[in-house]
Amino acid sequence: MTPRGPRAKVLLRGLLKLLAIVVVAGGVGFALGTGLSALSEDKTPTAPDAETATAEPPATGSTATAAELPVATPTTTTPAAPTTTTPDASASPLAEVSVSVLDARLFTDGTPSGRRDQRARLTVRLRAENAGGRRAILPPPILRVGSVRIPADAPAGTETPDEPLPAGTQRTMTLRFSLSGEATPKLVRDRRARLLIAGQSVAMRVKVRSS
To answer: What share of the chain is helix, strand, coil (3-state, %, to 5)?
Structure first.
């Protein structure tokens, strides 16, 4: 048998060799792994940078294509149509007629029956002027005393409003009204009334006379 001392040395020497082999093998393996990793990183394609991938705008001095050039739209100016003013055929000729009251007199009836029925007569002289270009026919005039409306008596003579009033002329005419009831004392008291004629409401002062 091998003595204990030499045998221990042999075992120790074998362990040292085995340890050296393991260390060497580990270092070689680490070096190989590092090299392979570096090679794999070099071969992996890298994604393009977002900033570099963006298309650069064309240079200032480059020539733009026809599709890039703005298209000028031709503008056409339509000449304004000449405006013409035509007279309104639907306008009433009465719009050009003016009426002015020259005199208005009220004559009360002093007879017993006249006082009982409060009868009176009103005579109105007026002037109508047609400043328009068409003749005008005046509608029947109306006397208004408060809320009472009284039509004119039947015309007499030639100075009446029922005759057409030619264009550019004027006429003096006389109107007569027969009153009774509440209209008479009201007109005697107020001494004013309104004449509805030619589409107008003409205010007038009335003079009161006893018959």
So the answer is: 30, 30, 45
Question: Which tokens hold the place of 99?
Answer: 């009426």
3-state SS class at 178: strand
Q: Indicate whether this model's pTM tops 0.70.
A: no
Q: How many CA atoms lie within 13 A of 174 on its CB side?
A: 10
Helix (H, G, I), strand (E, B) or coil at 14: helix
Residue ranges per structural domain of the chain: 93-210
Report whether pLDDT(71) > 80: no
Distances (CA, A) of 26 to 15, 39, 146, 200: 16, 20, 133, 128
Q: Are strands 170-179 and 97-108 parallel, antiparallel or unpaired?
A: unpaired
CB atoms within 10 A of CB 158: 9
Rg (CA), the chain: 62
Outline where the chain has alpha helix (H): 4-43, 50-53, 112-117, 183-190
Phi-psi region of 146 (alpha: psi -120 to 50; beta: other; left: phi over 0): left
User: 160, 138 in Cβ contact below 8 A?
Assistant: no
**Whole-angstrom distance, CA of residue 135 vs CA of residue 155:** 20
State both tokens at 210. Answer: 């006893």
Q: Write the CATH number of the domain with boundaries 93-210.
A: 2.60.40.4170
What does the pLDDT read at residue 50? 45
